Amino acid sequence: MTNNKIQKRLFYLTVSLLFLPMLQVLVSFVTVAKLGGYEPIPANVQFNKADWATGTYQEGKEQYLKTHWGFRNWALRLDHQIAYSLYNQSKVHAVVIGKEDYLFDYDYILEHNGKFEVKEFEINTRLNRLVQLQDTLKKLGKHLMVVIGPNKADFFPEYLPDKDQIPREGLKTNYDYYVKGMRQRNINLVDANGWFLEMKGKTAYPLFPQTGIHFSFYGAALFADSIISHVEEALNKDLPDLTWTDMVMAKEPREEDDDLEDALNILGNIPSYELPYPTIVIDEKGKYKPRSLTIGDSFYWRFVNWGGLQKVWNNGQFWYYNKDAHPSNRQVANLDFGKEIEKAEVICILMASVNLWRFGFGFDDQLYKYYFGNQKDLRILDEDEVVAEAPEQPSDFDALVVRKIQEARKNKEWFGFIQEKAKKEGMDTETALRNEAVYIVKQELGMLDD
């Protein structure tokens, strides 16, 4: 009799446990913390006969229920913790667990290892246009500058997983190509990535957190100060001073200094070294504050959060990914582009090296169109049109390449050589023709390494 009672109680307990997730969905009787990182959550779908007949309703409802069952977040964290603790594996695609529990964003490793395509043809055209814009804006009393933020994978390659520590010889990255091209053209540049690498092992405090994507608070302060110093020199003005006091060393990361660990979604904490947290002070008394417009990514947020838009700049504007305008919280697409440009004395294009493949987030194209909208873009003309309309000595890299392709087609001996070369190397003739033209133009312009 006693055994039967125990069995019945176990049965009822088991059934009750099975219904707990459903009860949690209905009344949320237990508070479950949200998952870290970014996860697109599908919206619930409303029933209608048309969607039911096509199966759209069923598919939408299935996707919704997959992310809305009771205690899902606890179950996911437990699963992720097991993968991390037992197998040193990340269940989150964007988070890579390196040596000694250093965490990296996967895209930053891809850029570090040259996995993002380096589109030389487009990059050279973009940089040539930046030169035009820089010169034009300078005549209008404006300063155009480019800032490249640091890459943690570049800074800590020794902590990358073995499979991501590949030979560097002959490796081509967007960062290397952009920096070299900008320096050759004297484009106003703050290369924080290169500067951080030079400072490695020489600073009083860590420049990067162990379990975060971005730089440390101390690194962010140095980054912000370098931007201010660059503008001071360019404008020959005394701008507000950004300094720090009361440097506190914390054993636990604060704010977004553990954002990669947060995105990993495990139950426990990953031990890390102490991190510096300075108190930022901006002295604006009697200083010159230029109007600024910065188009950039998340590496600018700490400067914004420290009050830099108001305390360093005069009503500074931040266009996050060229989409969201701050501090107005408006959509950039709804702003009067021309008015915003005319108001700015300093225009800054800021991005981490990982975002160079989408340089400027479209802003530089908009700016070029604003000032040179009546000029034809040589990147989209066909060969005959370029040859017919380009000047005798075209300065645009793309025009030079297209001109060289046209010359090769007309030279039977040269074109035959390219066809034979393409056949031997197993590529199509058009690709071989363009590669040949790009190589020769670079050679003529002195752009090839010795």
From TrEMBL:
Q: Decide whether keyword ATP-binding is in the record.
A: no
- Where found in the cell? Periplasm
**Where is the organism placed in the taxonomic lineage, from the top?**
Bacteria, Pseudomonadati, Bacteroidota, Saprospiria, Saprospirales
Q: Which domain of life is it from?
A: Bacteria
Question: What name does UniProt use for this protein?
Answer: AlgX/AlgJ SGNH hydrolase-like domain-containing protein
Taking the record's annotation, the residue ranges forming a coiled coil are none
Q: Which organism is this protein's natural source?
A: uncultured Aureispira sp
Signal peptide interval = none
Keyword tags:
Alginate biosynthesis, Periplasm, Signal, Transferase
Q: Which residues cross the membrane?
A: none
Name the Pfam families on file. Answer: ALGX (PF16822)
Q: Which GO molecular function annotations are given, in alphabetical order?
A: transferase activity
Pathway terms, separated by semicolons? Glycan biosynthesis; alginate biosynthesis
Extract one GO BP annotation from the record. Answer: alginic acid biosynthetic process
Name all AlgX/AlgJ SGNH hydrolase-like domain ranges. 95-244
Listed GO CC annotations: periplasmic space
Fetch the InterPro entries from UniProt.
ALGX/ALGJ_SGNH-like
The record's annotation in SUPFAM superfamilies points to: SGNH hydrolase
